[in-house]
Design goal:
The complex is a heterodimer of chains A (about 300) and B (about 325). With about 300 residues, chain A is of the alpha/beta class. Chain A has 11 helices and 14 strands. In chain A, helix 3 crosses helix 4 and helix 3 runs parallel beside helix 5. In chain B, a hairpin with a 5-residue loop joins strand 1 and strand 2. In chain B, helix 5 packs antiparallel against helix 13 and helix 8 packs across helix 11. Chain B has a two-stranded antiparallel sheet. Chain B is mainly α. Chain B is globular and about 85 Å long. Classes of the chains: A alpha/beta (about 300), B mainly alpha (about 325).
Chain lengths: ~300, ~325
Amino acid sequence: MEIGGKKILRELSFSVSPGIIGLLGPNGAGKSTFIKLILGVMRPTKGEVLLNGKGNYGGEDPLTRVGFMPEARAFHPSMRGVDYVIFAGELQGMPRRDARRRANETLDCLGVGESRFRPMGQYSAGMIQKTKLAQALVHDPPLLILDEPTAGLDPPSREEMLELLRVLGDSHGKSILISTHLLGDVERTCDQVVVLNQGECLFCGKLLELLKPSKSLFQISFAGEMENPQEIFQSAGWEFTLGEEPGLGVVAGPPGESPTHLFQSIHRARGWVKKLVPVEPRLDEVFFTLIQNHRGGK
Amino acid sequence: MVESEFGLESGSKKLILEYRPWKGQRVASWMPIFSIAREAVYQLFRRKVFWLIYALGLLVFFLYFFGQYLFFWVADQQAEPVVRVGGFGRANPNDMLQFLRGILKMDGSAETFRNFFSFQARALVILLAFAGTTILGEDLIHGTLLFFQSKPRGLRNYLVGKFLAASLVVHLLTTLPALLLFFEICFLESWSRLWTQQRVFWGILGYGVLLNAGLVPLLFASAASVRKTVPMILLWAGLFLLIPSLCMILVEGLGLSPAWRMLDVWGCLECLGERCLGAPTSIPGQRPDLQIKPILAGLSLSLLSVFCLAITRSIYLRGENE
């Protein structure tokens, strides 16, 4: 995909299965362009985007099956929340009566309540995001594309929005594509992840796969008369990184390796393990490693 | 679980329990055009400034509306040597009639409507500049365009819907008041005018269509480029007040070819409009030999419309969002 002669997305080829999918990438990675390609707002210079096996250029069917929640305000402040959602329903081809009924139901389900009759200029950030989610949901699409759904929300409202998304995905079978910078949101909500950087796809698959450690990592605290702990750990086949204090550190072994040998080696060296805690890789660490490796590779 | 101001637990439970799928029939794909036009018009009608400009714009209409009553009343008093005109004093009905018919052209002829359209120009320009930024420019400012584009046939429906809304603004200030005046004259004089003055009736409609075709593409291109109200009003004031004066200086002052009047958009619209109405082809205040030829006026407006539509298309296809 090129804009003004500059390549924005290149050799991007992947497919995702239904579920909650996180679209991750630093600024300028091509997330917004990718969303515009899915919506058919932009056309790829090469290749195609298939939604449910159908292209979205020239035909109108695929977009009736998509609900899009934009990151921008995308409404006039003087418009009432309920009118905004009714309008979105009408634009999706719903008869006005159906759109009105569905708008009230959806806003009610999402917890906007009586505030839906107030102009949207008076809404809090949380209410705005919920109303934008309602307009994406009003025509009951199987696929929701949400651009930064938790942007600008305080922690309780953010938690509430994530909970709503989980319910929509788990209890109502919606496929949801969430584009966000907030890795914590993805970790808590998504089961699949697409990582983009500089227009290329670095990873596409299950979140658990991405977080699967390449080594067994443990935080260790030990004591005893061990003179050179580094050598003892190495003889057991584990790498040791000393922590801030003596007797503290991180040990890394082959993936899936049980630390039994480690215990035996320490015991032979007249030491004992006080604490051994497995270290789970965090998404932000994995994400930054992916990005750095990609930049380093270039 | 964190409890928020909206009640997190109850919110998600409600969603689980009360969310129902929708399985209704969709309407035809072009129907959303009317929803877009309706919302754009509501958007405009919610602004008090719109009503203020519109009310000011209707002052000319009221002048003509009550002027017609005065004209027909004076015509009935012709036998009297002197008549009392309300609290304004006494006047000779023949002199008054001469003034109303000869100078103000309030006799319901094609000239009446030509002058009416001409007087509405300034109010229309200001109202359209304001309407353009409200119904088009603000969409780009608030990033609403992507919202429309994410819907089926989004951009096409959007442009046609907004075109309808902008057309309504044009007709609210020109064609509709002109038609009201026409029917008022029929009511005061004779309904047979509907048949005898058919040319004027169709001319009013034709003039309206012409204004629509000439001004709305220009509105789209300028509102999409400028987006904010004050710069937009300045741009339109320049186009419709400054450029006509410049053209007059070039043609009448410096003696250049009348083809330079092609730059004067409103002048071109007037030139073609008076032909729609069948009015005498002499624009008041312009020497007949220095007026623009209709073919040049048509060419100018056509080129302008094509140019404006090309600009609009490129801006909207780029999907610009601020």
